[in-house]
Structures are given as structure tokens and as C-alpha cells.
Specification:
alpha+beta; Immunoglobulin-like; 6-stranded mixed beta sheet
Length: 182
Amino acid sequence: MIRNILSTAAAAAALSISLGAHAASVDITPGVSDVLPTSEVTLTVSGSGFDMDVDSGSFRAVWDPAVLQYVSITFINPAWDTTFPFEDNAASGSLDYVFLGASNNAGTDFTIAELRFNAIGGAGSSTTVQLSVDTFGTTWNINAVPYETVDYGSAVVNIVPIPAAAWLFGSALGLLGWVRRR
């Protein structure tokens, strides 16, 4: 019996070491977005490079709330049958805890969710949407064993001015309308 316990513990330790040997990542795309003021921005969160099927995990996302206003999170991968986004601090620029659980495993490379924001900053403003380990330190798991090495990505959202050509076109249309009335 002791031999079985020791061999099980050794197998679990070996699995944990082998899982940590390769860095997986949780990224956000596109890496850079140039958007107009008041437009909607959608960023996609994905996982990749996991050695085995992931069965649970979580992340945190932070941004400047003066530039982006959180709208929603939509979970994409149908494997995620348990989801819990902690959105209480979203108005302050933080999703502190987004938990995902999969009874059928999500795979080794998978889409997690789409984050939607409204661009509320003025032209020239910018923010980084940074992913990280969640506030509680929860990690990604494979068969209930923590995956030790996960790199987290970020995306930059730039609020750009409405192009001068659009203003000229708009004023030309107004002028045409005025001329047509006369």
C-alpha cells in the first residue's frame, strides 16, 4: 500500500514537472488596435502551447477606465461549461477574476473569450489591456494538476482622431445639400 502511494506521488510529481517544462501562453489579440472615439473594440483571449488538454483556469484583465469602458465578456469555446467573470470592478478598469472550467477539456490551443469595450478616451489617448494571474492566484490546470509556466499577453488600444478627409467629405456633403436647397 505504501508502495502504491509513493508511486502515485512520484507520477504526480513527474507530471507536474513535465507540465511546467514548456511555457504555455494566454494571449490577447489583436496586439495593437487603432480605433475611433466612441467605437466598439473587441479583443480575443486565447490559450496556446499547453502540453495536454486544459480542464480549468482563470485570468485577470486590467486597463485604463478613462480610455476604455467595459461592455461584456463572451465565452467562445464550447468546452467551457463553467464560467464565472467577476465584473464588480469593471468600471474601475479590472476584471479581477475570470474562471473557466471544462468537463470535456478545452484542448491544448483554444479560444477563451471575447472582451468588448467602448472607446471613451479622447483622440490621442491609449491604454494597455494586460492579462495576468487572477487576484486569487488561481492557475491553469490539466487533469486537476496546476500548469506551472503560463505567460500572459497584452494588447494596446489607441484612440485615433477622425481623419481630416472624413471632415472634408462631411462638410462637402453639407455644402452640396445647402446648394441643392437654393
